[in-house]
Amino acid sequence: xxxxxxxxxxxxxxxxxxxxxxxxxxxxxxxxxxxxxxxxxxxxxxxxxxxxxxxxxxxxxxxxxxxxxxxxxxxxxxxxxxxxxxxxxxxxxxxxxxxxxxxxxxxxxxxxxxxxxxxxxxxxxxxxxxxxxxxxxxxxxxxxxxxxxxxxxxxxxxxxxxxxxxxxxxxxxxxxxxxxxxxxxxxxxxxxxxxxxxxxxxxxxxxxxxxxxxxxxxxxxxxxxxxxxxxxxxxxxxxxxxxxxxxxxxxxxxxxxxxxxxxxxxxxxxxxxxxxxxxxxxxxxxx
Amino acid sequence: xxxxxxxxxxxxxxxxxxxxxxxxxxxxxxxxxxxxxxxxxxxxxxxxxxxxxxxxxxxxxxxxxxxxxxxxxxxxxxxxxxxxxxxxxxxxxxxxxxxxxxxxxxxxxxxxxxxxxxxxxxxxxxxxxxxxxxxxxxxxxxxxxxxxxxxxxxxxxxxxxxxxxxxxxxxxxxxxxxxxxxxxxxxxxxxxxxxxxxxxxxxxxxxxxxxxxxxxxxxxxxxxxxxxxxxxxxxxxxxxxxxxxxxxxxxxxxxxxxxxxxxxxxxxxxxxxxxxxxxxxxxxxxx
Amino acid sequence: xxxxxxxxxxxxxxxxxxxxxxxxxxxxxxxxxxxxxxxxxxxxxxxxxxxxxxxxxxxxxxxxxxxxxxxxxxxxxxxxxxxxxxxxxxxxxxxxxxxxxxxxxxxxxxxxxxxxxxxxxxxxxxxxxxxxxxxxxxxxxxxxxxxxxxxxxxxxxxxxxxxxxxxxxxxxxxxxxxxxxxxxxxxxxxxxxxxxxxxxxxxxxxxxxxxxxxxxxxxxxxxxxxxxxxxxxxxxxxxxxxxxxxxxxxxxxxxxxxxxxxxxxxxxxxxxxxxxxxxxxxxxxxx
Amino acid sequence: xxxxxxxxxxxxxxxxxxxxxxxxxxxxxxxxxxxxxxxxxxxxxxxxxxxxxxxxxxxxxxxxxxxxxxxxxxxxxxxxxxxxxxxxxxxxxxxxxxxxxxxxxxxxxxxxxxxxxxxxxxxxxxxxxxxxxxxxxxxxxxxxxxxxxxxxxxxxxxxxxxxxxxxxxxxxxxxxxxxxxxxxxxxxxxxxxxxxxxxxxxxxxxxxxxxxxxxxxxxxxxxxxxxxxxxxxxxxxxxxxxxxxxxxxxxxxxxxxxxxxxxxxxxxxxxxxxxxxxxxxxxxxxx
Amino acid sequence: xxxxxxxxxxxxxxxxxxxxxxxxxxxxxxxxxxxxxxxxxxxxxxxxxxxxxxxxxxxxxxxxxxxxxxxxxxxxxxxxxxxxxxxxxxxxxxxxxxxxxxxxxxxxxxxxxxxxxxxxxxxxxxxxxxxxxxxxxxxxxxxxxxxxxxxxxxxxxxxxxxxxxxxxxxxxxxxxxxxxxxxxxxxxxxxxxxxxxxxxxxxxxxxxxxxxxxxxxxxxxxxxxxxxxxxxxxxxxxxxxxxxxxxxxxxxxxxxxxxxxxxxxxxxxxxxxxxxxxxxxxxxxxx
Amino acid sequence: xxxxxxxxxxxxxxxxxxxxxxxxxxxxxxxxxxxxxxxxxxxxxxxxxxxxxxxxxxxxxxxxxxxxxxxxxxxxxxxxxxxxxxxxxxxxxxxxxxxxxxxxxxxxxxxxxxxxxxxxxxxxxxxxxxxxxxxxxxxxxxxxxxxxxxxxxxxxxxxxxxxxxxxxxxxxxxxxxxxxxxxxxxxxxxxxxxxxxxxxxxxxxxxxxxxxxxxxxxxxxxxxxxxxxxxxxxxxxxxxxxxxxxxxxxxxxxxxxxxxxxxxxxxxxxxxxxxxxxxxxxxxxxx
Lengths: 287, 287, 287, 287, 287, 287
Fold this sequence. Notes:
Six copies of one chain form a homohexamer. The first copy, chain A, has helices at residues 8-23, 55-65, 94-126, 144-153, 171-174, 179-189, 202-210, 223-233, 251-255, 266-269, and strands at residues 39-46, 50-51, 70-73, 80-81, 86-93, 132-134, 167-169, 195-199, 215-219, 239-243, 261-263, 276-283. By secondary structure, the first copy, chain A, is of the alpha/beta class. The first copy, chain A, has two domains: 8-114 and 272-283, Aldehyde Oxidoreductase, domain 3 (Alpha-Beta Complex); 121-269, Alpha-Beta Barrel (TIM Barrel). A six-stranded parallel sheet of chain A has the order 6-11-10-9-8-7. In chain A, strands 3-5-1-12 form a four-stranded antiparallel sheet, covered by helices on one side. A two-stranded antiparallel sheet of chain A has the order 2-4. In chain A, α7 links the parallel β8 and β9 (215-219). Chain A is elongated and about 70 Å long. Chains in contact: A-B, A-C, A-D, A-E, A-F, B-C, B-D, B-E, B-F, C-D, C-E, C-F, D-E, D-F, E-F. The interface between A and B is large, with 71 and 71 residues.
């Protein structure tokens, strides 16, 4: 599932930035206590159950510090892990491994946290229907590419990646224009591109459907209101999305309405880190 | 409380990076629907109770998009807010404001989330004793400076900012050396600088205290074990810190042991975003 | 027509980069000959007819060198100019203006060249039908955001901004899969997002239409073949796009087929610069 | 001919920037459809006759995406190609190759376009005399180093690389000073460095020659006027350069005047891309 | 002595920056005269006695230009060298070596200069007592990480790496507050972290000691005044540091006072470069 | 004398980098002790006699931290100062001023050190003859633009700014080629550009003169040998430059030979910092 990985360009720069944060100006003061030539072997192990994401970034952290560190990855992004599952094995110069450890884990735990929360929402929604869970633009600044990949690793999909990808008309954009005119204007300016309309109530949803939007975002509606919109739509177009106040408790009820997509900002703005740690043995350099 | 703000250099680059993520290559497709010259006024409003942080970044997001946007901030970082509290007022070209909105909020909600969780831990600890809450290096990659400032805004303190700031000797660093030798070596190499030792059990803590560490980190101990270490220390030196498994439920018990500092990784790796939104009125350009 | 401007973030970094190219390490050796305090006034004037684009970048070039340079822009991006049309007036310290001049013009002439060629294609297509001209990913490395805005300034539209924006299935991606399966897979993985299929012959186009693609790219077909695809499609969906070998001579014939969109790589990879120059008067500093 | 390559530092950063443009945030949506492990082999083939340039950048594009992609280059920068000439062979993971393809080609086609147009001017000038063709500072922002190398690949030479390299006195710089004084001032301030003077008419050229300039730029003169200046100069110094309105049609006439150098802004601001493409076979991963 | 090396992240970016300075836009004009395929072997040789530092940066300079250059390092950072000592051997493509040579040497000579001056101060101080020499924040902008490592290579220690690492209260910070209050405030805000106080006279030093500072900086005192402060302190805490006007002539007298640390800004702001050169043999490519 | 300033682009990035070094991640811990709203006034004062350089960078340091800091500069780059001369006055928020102080001074003291040493060499040379002092490529990595401007501020000139600016043929480049052939090749490849040849002995110098070099670098010759070369040259061309082992003691003797230029690596690699300090008064915020 290669589409669960972020672009390597984004990984490289995010890791380089994070290493600077943790190392400059003086480097790892404590690692300098290790005897020259000391080696280490270790295992990245899950301490909570969840879904792994962040492999590319974790490997990159070790390798940017020292290409002599070898990392064998045992489970790819998107795999479920239990307490005690070994995710990867690491081997090489001890000082390099302890220096890179925290940065590697910061990526791995955060991104696995995103994947894990996504999986929980996906599972909860599946109990109610076929709706897909997807993310929002409420991502952590600087990490959008990595977090959106982690959502995919968790089984979710990606809403637009930026303001530049598709049109999403909200009340504020109308400024007196009708929805139909807004959709028509957007189509003319941005042909071939997804045009989505946010609707706060049934009448707006109906207007957006009539206007030929590709997606209608039903915002802050009850499951009952959503069901009414679904029924009103008739066939499979446009796709209907719900957002606003989705929780693990209510997502199944929303999925049961027959809606197509459920957007959950919490996937990226409120996912607790997944607990993974590095169990390490430092050995003499003759090992 | 100016020390609750991150360095402006870190703010500028983090915001610039985030705006690139959200705008390139085509810009805000939807904002382009707004009539030329449209103006807007809005209020950044809390939708959940908590503690605000991220003011500099939020302002920077608007101003980097358009210096004509005016932001009047009503409550500074570190202030508590209730549902409905207006945090700031924003005024200026409508297209600029809606374009910068999400980036500004992503910083504000994330950092306020960190400040809010910190405040909750601080309050919980206060119920038990005088121990201070502080953070760890388990920060979101690329945002360490901003998150550590948010911890201060929430009333917490900052553990070391990087591997480069002070020495923290863990088991892996000893590699056969005794704790006393490690502390002496560290002091020789890094004079004047904090030397901390991690201890997993009472005997190690005693050894670290005897070695003259400035800080001893009591890792994964029960409150009872911690209390024993506190009693054993006698006077006020070294400072004793606990870490490992701190929760809002048990932090008071740890504070009650008389320990000095309680480190909580969750402050920065698992804080849910605080819900703040921008209530906006788009007006004609003659407004 | 604010959507004819690129995001300011992209403008700032592109201009900063260009100024470094032209100035470091020693600065403008020749400008240093000017008497201290010398002032200048000048006009950016078109020396060929065309369409202007690049205003933000040109202004940015002057202002990054010296905020004391004042630029009054007379015609916005997207405006047609004749030989002799004054595009902007510039005023300020003479050394600053001559130092920034070439960088400002390099942006302005290149981007206006893109806008001008776009307008020519748009006009030629209009003679044949209602098809829109749009661009491709064949942009100059490092200038995609600016060039795509210039295409809009010229009256064209923007095809996908990057590989990350929408799905475009070509032969190489099928690897044994049928078109229908590819479209279905793409829809499942990237819901809500444009899915386009490239077709080299009528049968493929028919297959892509049947598969429910949003866009079908008719590649290297004759106008006759395109007309057959248009007829076969029936209603307005999917949008049909032609590409491959479009020229100012044949674009009208393609537009006449009733196709919706015509992609022209040349807009960004082969547009000659539009000739604009700065007519400058250097005056004594008491002016 | 290693001097036909740009510095590797410039190549690396230009390619990294271009890949970010095309891949972030979500990566190549379509490549993700390929079966895991799929391999591909391909050939970069010329579809128009011309001169190749951009090898370093094209290789860098593939390798930055995936070091497992192997590129065997068959003709170096500066070589002429015919329709059908294979420029390089590419082999490796299919997804990596299709993801990097457009970026590699954008560099290769643009830079080969520059080299090709240069060669055409060189050939045209050769028909008239021994004058060398060289470029200007009218380069595409951000690509100066790469474009100036492409000019060399095409057989041209490089005029000054930036405002920082040598002195070029134009009317605007004089501000009342005589040419003789300007040259003397420049020599004093910037000893050992080329001092060039722009002359719009014969009398100025004579003045510049008398002033001891190293180079005199004869701007917007007819071949007859140029010939007069050449005759007036006598011996081989200073070098005489013509600029302004050079075309493939008139360049021979200018070369025939005996002038030393002919500067052509069009080499870098108006060269159409050379058409090269990647013919690719995607194979099963067992291939 | 791995702690004599700077973090590799800082080395990589400093070297990349330096190579851009020396190579762009046109590359090494002169190296292009070398015959294609020419190889070279050379030795980095000390031409003055001193202490070497900068190995990582020097290697990085060659390798960033061309990974085919092999560098065998014979003496590590911190080693003393005599006139004629070979520090490293270099082998590979001649053009690559001469192109990277100056950048490699600029790092090596500057950083070895810092290490050498540090060693001289260390040796001079040792003649008087056990005081350690350490550096200041008076570093060359952009090179702090590398210079502080060079100080360690010379046998010195590192004062705080930045304003962010520890508290140093000077007169200007007091603004009416007493020293005791300042120390207490600093401790409360920045627990666990070094708190240092600058004292200009005995009474202030006594106040700072009483306030419980970790370090007291005795600024611009005579050896006699320093000795009085040392005597007054009694036991080993706080550490006492002297600064202001330290020279190779007087440092021994200061060390003899029993003070713990002597800070010398000159280590990083006024160290002359150590003279090292590259003796090179260019050979035919069949060598 | 505006040519004594470096390009503002180089200043901006060098200052931004230096501030990051000194402030991230936590900011100025000590400045946070100042009462909110405290103001300060101060004077940048010379504590040693010398020549000032670095004005743009010093101002930039204050303004990047806080645009509310006002800096009035009293003497421009290139001015001589005595002990006690006030160079500039600074006024604004106290915390901002103390935070930026060290960075501003690091630039100012280093660059003034370069200007001061340059002036000393210029003065010493003037005692012997009319030879100009100029610099080399032996600059501090990352600061070339600023240091070369400081050399100009000190009255020196700038040798080539990079390997990309002109050709300098050394023994290693010849690889069997004669000097005449090398010069001719260089002229053909890089027309209009300075071609310089290094000569270690009289016969080589004669060969280089005969070859028509623009500059001949007489390396490591005695004044007597240099005088012989000068005599041999006859007229004013080529320019003759000496290098190798120039000191304040011997430079006059070299100048007396009639040589044109004297290159001194020490100007940029071994200039001690000029001592300047900030005398500051922190006042209440009502001041």
